[in-house]
Amino acid sequence: MASYNKLATLMGEHQDMVTFRKFQRSNAKSLLYMQAEILHLENELAHIESEDRMSEDKTRSTLHESVFNLKEYGGIQWKRVLELREKLESYNKALILFSRVQLLPTPSVRDLRTLQEWLDRPEGGDFFLQGREADVWDDDHDVLTLSPRQGERDGLTGFVNDSVIPCCPRLSLLNQLKSSRNGDANGVWHYRYDRMTAAISLLSIILSSLLPSTSIFVLFFLANPVARLAAIIVFTTIFSSALFLTTKARRIEVFAATTAWGSRASSSSYREADSCDYFVDSLRFRQYSSEARVSVQLDHYQHL
Questions:
Q1: Per-residue pLDDT for 28 more than 90?
Q2: pTM summary value
Q3: Pick from 257, 261, 279: which is nearest to 216 by CA?
Q4: 143: buried, middle or exposed (CB in 10 Å: 19+, 13-18, 0-12)?
């Protein structure tokens, strides 16, 4: 029978299913209420302090000069100070916790859809959530995941996980990534994440090895300067795209690496062009020397 126990088992066995609500609106409203309470308390404390300073009682008028006197004789003023301290402590803790919640990753669309479909399937949740609880995962923009994999994924891994696997679940190659052939007790297909990341890492290594050597090979056989520049643009675009997809580099890092790649390719192109020109000139010089020697020999024979 479906229940919260079965849902907890699903989340325990599949890290990608560990998804919860952020309650961003409620958290923000709570912070706003706490902020308003502190504002009113600050205003009340300032009014009390002003009255005490203007008092004809010497003790009350000098409360702001000594914390000891404030604690001993402050009465309502010291009470409001303690209330403000407590409110600020709660407010600051709530701010920090909310900022940490905001930094937690959001689940992928595929993982969220899988959880929603499981809740509706007869062999899964079988619609056990009723009333308002049934809509808890319907807001795609107010959910978070505690799965560590979301923070580790690069663009290529996310594309394979979210687009390739759902569209081609029966491919023999993808079947090698499955941990079981018929799904688990919850009716969920589980793909081995370590195998998938290993395959993608191997693809990234092959790509990083082929891209520089291929560009050098192509540029070596291009004698036209315009064609060389076009080839550099094409390979630089491929390089930046591959860097963005296969790593978690930031935009500034991609920009810096692409700039260095383009500069290196341009300088290498000019050096290769000079080498090719030198090689061609050497061949032409040798051909000219051979023809000159043959001409001299013919002139010598004719003179004889």
A1: yes
A2: 0.63
A3: 261
A4: buried
